[in-house]
Amino acid sequence: MCGIIGITGHAAAVDGVVAGLRRLEYRGYDSAGVVTTDPEGLRVVKRAGKLDNLAGALDGQPLSASTALGHTRWATHGEPSDRNAHPHLDPSGRVAIVHNGIIENYQTLKAELGDVRFASDTDSEVVAHLIAEQLTASSTAATAADGTPDLLAAVRAVVARLEGAYALCVVAADDPETLVVAKHEAPLIVAQAEGVGYCASDVAALIEHTNEVAALLDGQFARITPQGIEVVDVDGVPATPHAYTVDWDLAAAEKQGYDHFMLKEIHEQPQAVADTLLDRLNAPAPGLPPRLQLDELRIDEGEFSRIDKVFILACGTSLHAGMVGKLAIEHWAGIPVDVEVASEFRYRDPIVDPHTLVIAISQSGETIDTIAGAAHARNQRAPVIALTNVVGSTLAREADGGLYTHAGPEVAVASTKAFTTQIVGCLLLGLYFGQARGRVYSSEVADILERFDRVPDALREVLELDGQLRELAQRYHDVDYTMFIGRHAGLPIAMEGALKLKEISYLHAEAFPAGEMKHGPIALIEPGSLVVALAPAGHVFGKMVSNIQEVRARGASVLAIGTAGSTAALTEHADDVLTLPEPPHELAGPILSVVPLQLFSYHVATLRGEDVDQPRNLAKTVTVE
Ligand code: G6P
């Protein structure tokens, strides 16, 4: 939530900041703003609404400076408006800040400042006031050895008083070439390239400048100047951030001719799945049978024999991937698995001990609910595995072990390729645990992996249904209510289908286990309702057909998603039937069956004229609770 970028030492810093904000806009798009520094003072331009509003304002009021700081906002405190847009200044205009997170004690801090007028309703503005106060008080620690005000020391002193989560970036008029940043429970990376210093919320904003970055750890601060970056801890002692190399480039973060990022990312799925499956089967030593190896896991195979329970923690789309993970782990490893909404986990009393394995799934690796849930489990000495798409993300760093999906950058708010690769990650983990616990023989593992290798081609076949899905969207884009139903591996996909549709088209959509419908939800069905039924061939197909008949009898139109082996039987029960190839393994079925639902939602949303990549009220990376 909220994107930050700062640049110092670049002749076109403002242009660089606006370009960086474009790549961060998926983090929030309620307003955007920029501040520049020079010895004459700070200059701020900010506008409510999307970044284009700010860009337009800058066209009419160009700013030129070598140091600039920008922000794109997802509103928490204070409505989206010009005055609540960041950056925020102190009353004297000496200090400007941008903030991602929530300052929980902002009201107390405001009260401590006494009779001061605030220019916004945000929780963030108070930080600018406090830093300016620090710089002004001559006897504070906020003074360098030569007696000049020390912005880094002032920020450290103020941050010690903050409660909540923050990635903060601060500039001051009297130190115009310096950016000072602080990080606690919200992501912040820093980088230096060719005499230019950078900070940003994530690498997408910096990838056109460098792929060598460093993620600050909680409690770290950095002073960024064109000459270099100094990182310290809360006591001012030099500290080391997490440095890493980004393994994708600018082209991967661009639309490449597609109308929307979401469409591009849907079409990238065959490659993303193939990349996530790549090179997983290896002989441990010459002459030995090949085994599934997950090198990044960093948890010894032997440890899995001690695990007697698994929790999967995730939010949103990642949660639905976790539901497939449960099926895979229980099937291959025979360990009971609970899938938990991460935001609920630490506020109850989950039974977690060192024999519990926690798998935290997060595309971004920065979702605060998932990070906090994983930390809660670690405090109880449970090993935590992070399944993430972002190397160097907070979750990846804090977990005991990990598995990366190789989806490349996902920009659209509605997650697609991250989801299918998360399912691949879950299948690999389930198979690996089964292998480690001696429940799946090496030959079976090799056979299953060989079948998974056929998934990318099957995905390409599914993508060819796009034309049919556009027609279906034409027919159904005005329905009042859509219910998605499924059983077994179809249920997580029903849930994901409903989420996709509501996220980007704002249509009312819900998902239910098909067998549960008769206990209440079927009362919602009336003529004009649409039911999307996941009905692949398999052991629950007969039951799905009965459930389809039940909703049809009550006047719903039925769109059935079947497979080659099931569609002949479906045609007499459904208004529309889509035929997917038979998946090479039943548990890989969800990877295929979600794709038509992604495309259906995409076409419905575009037909309704909605902003597919930036749906209202949402943000891609949710760093507040
Ligand atoms: C937001 C996004 C969803 C995403 C969820 C979890 O709500 O809009 O697309 O599934 O966060 O994100 P994560 O990065 O943890 O997978």
Task: List the topology elements.
Blueprint lengths: L2 E6 L4 H12 L6 E8 L2 E8 L2 H10 L6 E7 L14 E2 L5 E9 L2 H7 L12 H12 L14 H9 L4 E9 L6 E6 L4 E5 L2 E5 L11 E4 L5 E5 L2 E5 L9 E4 L15 H7 L1 H9 L3 E2 L8 E2 L16 E6 L1 H18 L3 E5 H4 L10 E7 L5 H12 L4 E5 L5 H5 L2 E4 L12 H20 L5 H11 L2 H9 L2 H11 L4 E6 L3 H16 L2 E6 L16 E6 L5 H12 L4 E7 L3 H4 L5 E5 L8 H19 L18
Parallel strand pairs: 17-18, 17-19, 19-20, 20-21, 22-23, 22-24, 24-25, 25-26
Antiparallel strand pairs: 1-4, 1-10, 2-3, 2-4, 5-6, 6-7, 7-8, 8-12, 9-10, 9-11, 11-14, 12-13, 15-16
Helix pairs in contact: 4-5, 7-12, 7-14, 8-12, 8-16, 12-19, 14-19, 15-19, 16-19
This protein binds 6-O-phosphono-alpha-D-glucopyranose.
Count of β-strands = 26
Q: pLDDT under 50 segments (min length 5)?
A: none
Rounded mean pLDDT score = 94
What is the correct CATH architecture of the largest domain?
4-Layer Sandwich
Multimer state: single chain
CATH superfamily of the largest domain: Aminohydrolase, N-terminal nucleophile (Ntn) domain
Rg from C-alpha positions? 26 Å
Please tell me what the overall shape is: globular
Beta-strand residue fraction: 15-25%
- For the terminal residues, how far apart are their CA atoms? 10 Å
